[in-house]
Amino acid sequence: MNKITLFSIQLLMLALITQLGMSQSTEGYYMHIDYINVEKNDIPEFENHISNILKPVQESRIRDDVIAEWYIYKVAYPGTQDPSYNYVFVSLSDDLEDFDDSNEQIIDRMSELADSDETNEFQKWLIPYRSELWRINNSVLTENDSRASKYFVMDYMDVQLGMEYTYQMMEDEVALPIHRHRMDIDQMNGWELFSLIVPGGTEYGYNFATGNYFSDLRHFEFGFTEEIIRQSHPDTDINEINETFAETRDLVRSEVWELIDHVR
Hints:
By secondary structure, this protein is an alpha+beta fold. It has helices spanning 3-18, 43-63, 102-113, 116-123, 164-184, 226-232, 238-248; strands at 30-36, 69-77, 87-93, 130-141, 151-159, 190-198, 208-214, 249-263. It folds into two domains: 3-28 and 134-263, Alpha-Beta Plaits; 30-132, 2-Layer Sandwich (Alpha-Beta Plaits). Helix 5 (164-184) crosses helix 7 (238-248). The longest helix is centred in the first third of the chain and has 21 residues, at 43-63. It is elongated, with a radius of gyration of 20 Å. The termini are far apart.
Protein backbone atom coordinates (compact mmCIF):
# COMPACT_ATOMS: atom_id res chain seq x y z
CA MET A 1 0.00 0.00 0.00
CA ASN A 2 1.65 3.25 -1.14
CA LYS A 3 1.90 6.49 0.80
CA ILE A 4 -0.93 8.22 -1.08
CA THR A 5 -3.29 5.28 -0.40
CA LEU A 6 -2.45 5.27 3.31
CA PHE A 7 -2.93 9.01 3.51
CA SER A 8 -6.25 8.71 1.65
CA ILE A 9 -7.52 6.25 4.29
CA GLN A 10 -6.56 8.75 7.01
CA LEU A 11 -8.48 11.45 5.17
CA LEU A 12 -11.57 9.25 4.88
CA MET A 13 -11.54 8.75 8.65
CA LEU A 14 -11.15 12.52 9.13
CA ALA A 15 -14.08 13.09 6.74
CA LEU A 16 -16.41 11.07 8.95
CA ILE A 17 -15.54 13.31 11.88
CA THR A 18 -15.65 16.69 10.13
CA GLN A 19 -18.39 16.32 7.51
CA LEU A 20 -21.22 17.30 9.85
CA GLY A 21 -19.40 20.49 10.77
CA MET A 22 -19.16 21.73 7.20
CA SER A 23 -21.45 24.47 5.95
CA GLN A 24 -22.09 24.34 2.23
CA SER A 25 -23.99 26.98 0.29
CA THR A 26 -23.97 26.44 -3.48
CA GLU A 27 -22.41 23.00 -3.72
CA GLY A 28 -23.65 21.39 -6.92
CA TYR A 29 -24.31 24.68 -8.68
CA TYR A 30 -22.73 25.48 -12.05
CA MET A 31 -20.54 28.43 -12.90
CA HIS A 32 -20.20 30.00 -16.35
CA ILE A 33 -17.11 32.15 -16.88
CA ASP A 34 -16.47 34.52 -19.79
CA TYR A 35 -12.97 35.96 -20.11
CA ILE A 36 -13.20 39.37 -21.79
CA ASN A 37 -10.54 41.61 -23.28
CA VAL A 38 -11.24 45.36 -23.37
CA GLU A 39 -8.80 47.72 -25.03
CA LYS A 40 -7.28 50.28 -22.67
CA ASN A 41 -8.88 53.27 -24.42
CA ASP A 42 -12.31 51.63 -24.22
CA ILE A 43 -12.24 50.85 -20.49
CA PRO A 44 -14.02 54.04 -19.22
CA GLU A 45 -16.89 53.58 -21.67
CA PHE A 46 -17.07 49.85 -20.99
CA GLU A 47 -17.28 50.30 -17.22
CA ASN A 48 -19.90 53.01 -17.61
CA HIS A 49 -22.06 50.65 -19.68
CA ILE A 50 -21.80 47.96 -16.99
CA SER A 51 -24.11 49.85 -14.65
CA ASN A 52 -26.24 51.41 -17.40
CA ILE A 53 -26.77 48.39 -19.64
CA LEU A 54 -25.27 45.10 -18.52
CA LYS A 55 -26.31 45.13 -14.87
CA PRO A 56 -30.03 45.74 -15.63
CA VAL A 57 -29.88 42.85 -18.09
CA GLN A 58 -28.47 40.52 -15.44
CA GLU A 59 -31.05 41.75 -12.92
CA SER A 60 -33.79 40.77 -15.36
CA ARG A 61 -32.24 37.31 -15.86
CA ILE A 62 -32.21 36.76 -12.09
CA ARG A 63 -35.82 37.97 -11.73
CA ASP A 64 -36.82 35.42 -14.37
CA ASP A 65 -34.85 32.64 -12.60
CA VAL A 66 -32.53 32.20 -15.57
CA ILE A 67 -29.46 32.57 -13.35
CA ALA A 68 -28.97 32.77 -9.58
CA GLU A 69 -26.07 35.24 -9.28
CA TRP A 70 -23.83 37.35 -11.52
CA TYR A 71 -20.43 39.00 -10.94
CA ILE A 72 -18.06 41.08 -13.01
CA TYR A 73 -14.40 41.34 -12.08
CA LYS A 74 -11.40 43.30 -13.26
CA VAL A 75 -8.25 41.17 -13.43
CA ALA A 76 -6.07 43.01 -10.93
CA TYR A 77 -3.13 40.60 -11.07
CA PRO A 78 -3.12 38.25 -14.08
CA GLY A 79 -1.62 34.80 -13.94
CA THR A 80 0.66 35.35 -16.93
CA GLN A 81 3.05 38.05 -18.03
CA ASP A 82 1.16 38.49 -21.31
CA PRO A 83 -2.54 38.29 -20.37
CA SER A 84 -5.17 37.87 -23.07
CA TYR A 85 -8.10 39.20 -21.04
CA ASN A 86 -8.64 41.84 -18.36
CA TYR A 87 -12.27 41.35 -17.28
CA VAL A 88 -14.22 38.29 -16.18
CA PHE A 89 -17.99 37.65 -16.15
CA VAL A 90 -19.18 34.96 -13.72
CA SER A 91 -22.74 33.58 -13.68
CA LEU A 92 -24.14 30.93 -11.31
CA SER A 93 -27.09 28.62 -11.80
CA ASP A 94 -28.35 25.29 -10.48
CA ASP A 95 -29.15 24.10 -14.01
CA LEU A 96 -26.67 23.79 -16.88
CA GLU A 97 -29.43 24.44 -19.42
CA ASP A 98 -29.65 28.02 -18.15
CA PHE A 99 -26.38 28.72 -19.94
CA ASP A 100 -27.63 27.63 -23.37
CA ASP A 101 -27.09 30.50 -25.82
CA SER A 102 -26.33 32.84 -22.92
CA ASN A 103 -24.84 35.55 -25.15
CA GLU A 104 -27.92 35.53 -27.36
CA GLN A 105 -30.10 35.78 -24.23
CA ILE A 106 -28.14 38.81 -23.05
CA ILE A 107 -28.28 40.57 -26.43
CA ASP A 108 -32.05 39.99 -26.71
CA ARG A 109 -32.68 41.41 -23.25
CA MET A 110 -30.29 44.27 -23.91
CA SER A 111 -32.32 45.25 -26.97
CA GLU A 112 -35.40 45.49 -24.76
CA LEU A 113 -33.72 47.64 -22.09
CA ALA A 114 -31.42 49.94 -24.09
CA ASP A 115 -31.50 51.80 -27.39
CA SER A 116 -30.05 50.19 -30.48
CA ASP A 117 -26.93 52.36 -30.66
CA GLU A 118 -25.91 51.48 -27.09
CA THR A 119 -26.70 47.82 -27.66
CA ASN A 120 -24.66 47.64 -30.86
CA GLU A 121 -21.73 49.42 -29.19
CA PHE A 122 -21.71 47.11 -26.20
CA GLN A 123 -22.03 43.88 -28.17
CA LYS A 124 -18.38 44.00 -29.21
CA TRP A 125 -17.43 43.47 -25.54
CA LEU A 126 -19.68 40.44 -25.19
CA ILE A 127 -17.50 38.31 -27.45
CA PRO A 128 -15.32 36.40 -24.97
CA TYR A 129 -11.70 35.50 -25.46
CA ARG A 130 -12.63 32.18 -23.85
CA SER A 131 -15.61 30.66 -22.00
CA GLU A 132 -15.71 27.85 -19.46
CA LEU A 133 -18.30 25.83 -17.55
CA TRP A 134 -17.46 24.66 -14.04
CA ARG A 135 -19.19 22.70 -11.32
CA ILE A 136 -18.99 23.93 -7.72
CA ASN A 137 -17.95 20.83 -5.79
CA ASN A 138 -17.68 22.49 -2.39
CA SER A 139 -18.56 25.95 -1.07
CA VAL A 140 -17.97 27.34 2.41
CA LEU A 141 -18.69 31.03 2.98
CA THR A 142 -18.67 33.07 6.18
CA GLU A 143 -21.75 35.01 5.07
CA ASN A 144 -24.38 34.63 2.36
CA ASP A 145 -22.85 37.59 0.51
CA SER A 146 -19.20 36.50 0.86
CA ARG A 147 -18.96 36.12 -2.93
CA ALA A 148 -19.34 39.88 -3.11
CA SER A 149 -15.96 40.28 -1.41
CA LYS A 150 -13.65 42.86 -2.92
CA TYR A 151 -11.06 40.30 -4.03
CA PHE A 152 -11.33 36.82 -5.49
CA VAL A 153 -8.29 34.59 -6.04
CA MET A 154 -8.66 31.88 -8.68
CA ASP A 155 -6.07 29.08 -8.40
CA TYR A 156 -6.05 26.89 -11.51
CA MET A 157 -4.98 23.28 -10.88
CA ASP A 158 -3.84 20.48 -13.15
CA VAL A 159 -4.82 17.23 -11.40
CA GLN A 160 -3.21 14.07 -12.70
CA LEU A 161 -5.41 11.49 -14.42
CA GLY A 162 -6.68 9.01 -11.84
CA MET A 163 -5.92 11.32 -8.91
CA GLU A 164 -9.13 13.36 -9.06
CA TYR A 165 -10.77 11.69 -6.06
CA THR A 166 -7.64 11.89 -3.92
CA TYR A 167 -7.14 15.53 -4.85
CA GLN A 168 -10.72 16.51 -3.99
CA MET A 169 -10.47 14.64 -0.70
CA MET A 170 -7.26 16.51 0.08
CA GLU A 171 -8.95 19.83 -0.61
CA ASP A 172 -12.08 18.97 1.38
CA GLU A 173 -10.46 17.37 4.40
CA VAL A 174 -7.02 18.97 4.64
CA ALA A 175 -7.15 22.37 2.95
CA LEU A 176 -10.70 23.26 3.99
CA PRO A 177 -10.09 23.14 7.77
CA ILE A 178 -7.12 25.46 7.23
CA HIS A 179 -9.30 27.88 5.28
CA ARG A 180 -12.00 27.65 7.93
CA HIS A 181 -9.43 28.62 10.54
CA ARG A 182 -8.49 31.63 8.42
CA MET A 183 -12.18 32.55 8.23
CA ASP A 184 -12.44 32.27 12.01
CA ILE A 185 -9.64 34.81 12.46
CA ASP A 186 -11.08 37.15 9.78
CA GLN A 187 -8.36 36.58 7.20
CA MET A 188 -10.70 35.06 4.61
CA ASN A 189 -14.39 35.30 3.64
CA GLY A 190 -14.90 32.06 1.77
CA TRP A 191 -13.48 29.14 -0.16
CA GLU A 192 -14.79 27.03 -3.03
CA LEU A 193 -13.65 24.04 -5.06
CA PHE A 194 -14.47 23.86 -8.78
CA SER A 195 -14.13 21.10 -11.37
CA LEU A 196 -13.99 22.00 -15.06
CA ILE A 197 -16.76 20.57 -17.25
CA VAL A 198 -15.90 22.11 -20.63
CA PRO A 199 -13.53 22.66 -22.34
CA GLY A 200 -11.56 19.61 -21.28
CA GLY A 201 -8.78 17.21 -22.14
CA THR A 202 -5.16 16.89 -21.11
CA GLU A 203 -4.03 19.58 -23.54
CA TYR A 204 -6.22 22.28 -21.98
CA GLY A 205 -3.83 22.79 -19.09
CA TYR A 206 -6.05 22.51 -16.00
CA ASN A 207 -9.16 20.70 -14.79
CA PHE A 208 -9.78 21.96 -11.24
CA ALA A 209 -9.62 25.29 -9.46
CA THR A 210 -10.11 26.76 -6.02
CA GLY A 211 -11.70 30.13 -5.34
CA ASN A 212 -10.73 32.25 -2.35
CA TYR A 213 -12.63 35.35 -1.18
CA PHE A 214 -10.93 38.23 0.63
CA SER A 215 -11.81 41.74 1.79
CA ASP A 216 -8.25 42.93 2.14
CA LEU A 217 -5.26 42.55 -0.15
CA ARG A 218 -2.90 42.07 2.81
CA HIS A 219 -4.56 38.78 3.73
CA PHE A 220 -3.31 37.09 0.54
CA GLU A 221 0.06 36.40 2.11
CA PHE A 222 -1.40 34.33 4.96
CA GLY A 223 -1.63 31.00 3.22
CA PHE A 224 -0.62 27.53 4.29
CA THR A 225 1.91 28.62 6.88
CA GLU A 226 3.29 25.96 9.19
CA GLU A 227 1.66 27.68 12.16
CA ILE A 228 -1.82 27.64 10.61
CA ILE A 229 -1.42 24.03 9.43
CA ARG A 230 -0.48 22.92 12.96
CA GLN A 231 -3.42 24.79 14.45
CA SER A 232 -5.81 23.09 12.00
CA HIS A 233 -4.14 19.64 11.96
CA PRO A 234 -2.09 19.27 15.18
CA ASP A 235 -1.42 15.54 14.70
CA THR A 236 -0.62 15.56 10.98
CA ASP A 237 2.82 15.36 9.39
CA ILE A 238 3.21 18.68 7.52
CA ASN A 239 5.78 17.28 5.10
CA GLU A 240 3.39 14.46 4.24
CA ILE A 241 0.62 16.96 3.48
CA ASN A 242 2.88 18.98 1.20
CA GLU A 243 4.22 15.90 -0.57
CA THR A 244 0.76 14.45 -1.18
CA PHE A 245 -0.54 17.71 -2.61
CA ALA A 246 2.51 17.92 -4.86
CA GLU A 247 1.94 14.36 -6.09
CA THR A 248 -1.73 14.90 -6.94
CA ARG A 249 -1.78 18.31 -8.63
CA ASP A 250 0.23 21.17 -10.09
CA LEU A 251 -0.71 24.78 -9.47
CA VAL A 252 -0.85 26.13 -13.03
CA ARG A 253 -1.41 29.78 -12.12
CA SER A 254 -3.08 32.12 -9.63
CA GLU A 255 -5.02 35.23 -10.54
CA VAL A 256 -6.42 38.04 -8.40
CA TRP A 257 -9.73 39.48 -9.57
CA GLU A 258 -11.23 42.67 -8.15
CA LEU A 259 -15.02 42.92 -7.95
CA ILE A 260 -16.60 45.72 -9.99
CA ASP A 261 -20.29 44.90 -9.57
CA HIS A 262 -22.67 42.02 -8.92
CA VAL A 263 -26.31 41.02 -8.80
CA ARG A 264 -27.74 38.26 -6.61
